[in-house]
Amino acid sequence: MSINHEQSIENNDDIIIIKDLNKWYGDFHVLKDINLRVKKGERIVVCGPSGSGKSTMTRCINRLEEFQRGSLTVNGVEMIEDVKNIEAIRREVGMVFQHFNLFPHLTILENLTLGPIWVQKKPKKEAEAIAMKYLERVKIPDQALKFPGQLSGGQQQRVAIARSLCMNPEIMLFDEPTSALDPEMIKEVLDVMVELADEGMTMLCVTHEMGFAKKVADRVIFMDAGEIVEQNIPEEIFNNPQTDRLQLFLSQILDH
Amino acid sequence: MKEFKPLPDKPAPADVVGVIPWLKDNLFPTPLNSLVTLALLAFFVTVIPPLFDWLFFSANWSGTTQDACTNKDGACWVFVIAWSKQFFYGSYPIEEVWRIHTCLIALVAIIIASFKLHKDLRNKVAIPLFLLLPFFSIVILDGSLIGLAYVSTDYWGGFTLNVMLAAASIIVAFPLSFLWALGRRSDMPFIRSVSVILIEFFRGVPVLALFFMGSVMLPLFFPEGTNVDKLLRVWIVLTLFMSGYMAEVFRGGFQAVPSGQYEAADSLGLGFWQKTLLIVLPQVIKISMPNILATFVMLFKNTTFLLIIGIFEMLSTTQTALANSNWLGGHSTEGYLFVAVVFWICCFSMSMISSSIERKLDTSHRN
């Protein structure tokens, strides 16, 4: 089913290599034979109905979810049952969540410096300089000393993006970053993500924002019932769906 | 294009703000409620003046013996005043009382410091000082280690003993119970079962039974000839009892921390202890603050149970005073009222401190 799969199988420079990944929740088979390879700098949008396994697959990449069969390699490190190994992979992968998940007891600046100080062992001054740099990039340096609860949803999500970027990750995962936002705030978050994409960050983004997919994605992956049903460049996915399932999905999300 | 202008704000109408509408809404909204209001008013008018008269205006304040209490219609505060040293310090030698004061001042100073210090210093300075305080106090009060006159724990007593026992138990129980709560959530079956057994044992057995076990049964398990101080055993029992309760309070707090917080910490690559201490613990404490305080107050009041096993804390000192042959004039009302008021003042202050901590920790809607 996967179109790029056969050509890229020899290329071991791919930054994410997922091979025959299977996952069960008890008896429920949530991910079925997932095969996916992501090149460095590639921008991938994952879409599909809820319950299709798109979030679960994304969360497997930084081991927020375990999987039972198959293999997963991130930036040349294979994921194995080992705390040091998992932490090493997590340092390479930034993640942005639907509900932001900022730390409510810390200021914006402390949210951003926490990782650099405690994980990367950077001195506080340096971590703060990095944090301010990324806060400027997401255009809210003036909020640095506030607490997350004082910010709007869009601002919080931009802080969350900045928090991940402070760790200087190789890959950024986005798990429905705009689904919990008011319509007027979606744009400010998408603008930041488009900018990030333009700078060449490897991105894997679960989203329902089809406009964003058309604009920045190198490849769109459509999932349903725990499988990758189709993957292709955005034009082909939207204009020339190969399966009835994708056709139905597109007609339902684009028709209103 | 038409410009959108929001409507200007208007002042609230006169019949919804002010004293008369408030009275009407809160005290006299319906005939039945008006009746209740009047009945309560009548009750207060009949009860309060005689009460105040007994407490203050007709009360006997000066003198040193029971014969000074000439006005039988008033309280005999002479009794409380004459025994106040024993109520507060037990039979601790009166010339050495400064040591007790030193410990109490240290306690208050550390509490104030943990409020006033800058956030970065607070954890590094206040927490170690808190943990050292019980041992510092023992050394000072005992005296033999630092060349002061030795005062055996048999002489420690009074209200200051209640305070110091409660404080020392809380300070040790805090980290211990957090570990137990953490153990109860652990994936490792051994650690989990040990934690569950400890928590459920110390929560399930009445505190009086624990005190008896501590004072009567525990020595049977020590090798012959070792004499573990009675007060030390009580301290251990209180600490473990407190830990059992606090562990459950913390467990509730753990469950209230959204899973997204763990995931965010994980995705940053934080290790287990970093995640637990930097992300989870502060939020757990914030969520559990009201229940932590409730447990503190309970433990503090439970220290009066120690009179049963012959520790001279405030309540048993009061009973001793009431049984004194020079004071057999029936002063139990005054004595127990005084104990109640002293405890109430302390518990109420703890409530105030706790709500101020809650406000300080509340970062959710501060604009």
UniProtKB/TrEMBL annotation, chain A:
<dbReference type="InterPro" id="IPR030679">
    <property type="entry name" value="ABC_ATPase_HisP-typ"/>
</dbReference>
<dbReference type="InterPro" id="IPR017871">
    <property type="entry name" value="ABC_transporter-like_CS"/>
</dbReference>
<comment type="similarity">
    <text>Belongs to the ABC transporter superfamily.</text>
</comment>
<feature type="domain" description="ABC transporter">
    <location>
        <begin position="16"/>
        <end position="250"/>
    </location>
</feature>
<protein>
    <submittedName>
        <fullName>Amino acid ABC transporter ATP-binding protein</fullName>
    </submittedName>
</protein>
<keyword id="KW-0547">Nucleotide-binding</keyword>
<keyword id="KW-0067">ATP-binding</keyword>
<dbReference type="InterPro" id="IPR027417">
    <property type="entry name" value="P-loop_NTPase"/>
</dbReference>
<dbReference type="InterPro" id="IPR050086">
    <property type="entry name" value="MetN_ABC_transporter-like"/>
</dbReference>
<dbReference type="GO" id="GO:0005524">
    <property type="term" value="F:ATP binding"/>
</dbReference>
<dbReference type="InterPro" id="IPR003593">
    <property type="entry name" value="AAA+_ATPase"/>
</dbReference>
<keyword id="KW-0813">Transport</keyword>
<dbReference type="InterPro" id="IPR003439">
    <property type="entry name" value="ABC_transporter-like_ATP-bd"/>
</dbReference>
<dbReference type="Pfam" id="PF00005">
    <property type="entry name" value="ABC_tran"/>
</dbReference>
UniProtKB/TrEMBL annotation, chain B:
<feature type="transmembrane region" description="Helical">
    <location>
        <begin position="292"/>
        <end position="315"/>
    </location>
</feature>
<keyword id="KW-0812">Transmembrane</keyword>
<keyword id="KW-0472">Membrane</keyword>
<feature type="transmembrane region" description="Helical">
    <location>
        <begin position="98"/>
        <end position="117"/>
    </location>
</feature>
<comment type="similarity">
    <text>Belongs to the binding-protein-dependent transport system permease family. HisMQ subfamily.</text>
</comment>
<feature type="transmembrane region" description="Helical">
    <location>
        <begin position="232"/>
        <end position="250"/>
    </location>
</feature>
<dbReference type="Pfam" id="PF00528">
    <property type="entry name" value="BPD_transp_1"/>
</dbReference>
<dbReference type="InterPro" id="IPR035906">
    <property type="entry name" value="MetI-like_sf"/>
</dbReference>
<feature type="domain" description="ABC transmembrane type-1">
    <location>
        <begin position="159"/>
        <end position="354"/>
    </location>
</feature>
<protein>
    <submittedName>
        <fullName>Amino acid ABC transporter permease</fullName>
    </submittedName>
</protein>
<feature type="transmembrane region" description="Helical">
    <location>
        <begin position="163"/>
        <end position="182"/>
    </location>
</feature>
<keyword id="KW-0813">Transport</keyword>
<dbReference type="InterPro" id="IPR010065">
    <property type="entry name" value="AA_ABC_transptr_permease_3TM"/>
</dbReference>
<feature type="transmembrane region" description="Helical">
    <location>
        <begin position="129"/>
        <end position="151"/>
    </location>
</feature>
<keyword id="KW-1003">Cell membrane</keyword>
<keyword id="KW-1133">Transmembrane helix</keyword>
<keyword id="KW-0029">Amino-acid transport</keyword>
<feature type="transmembrane region" description="Helical">
    <location>
        <begin position="335"/>
        <end position="357"/>
    </location>
</feature>
<dbReference type="InterPro" id="IPR043429">
    <property type="entry name" value="ArtM/GltK/GlnP/TcyL/YhdX-like"/>
</dbReference>
<dbReference type="InterPro" id="IPR000515">
    <property type="entry name" value="MetI-like"/>
</dbReference>
<feature type="transmembrane region" description="Helical">
    <location>
        <begin position="194"/>
        <end position="220"/>
    </location>
</feature>
<feature type="transmembrane region" description="Helical">
    <location>
        <begin position="32"/>
        <end position="52"/>
    </location>
</feature>
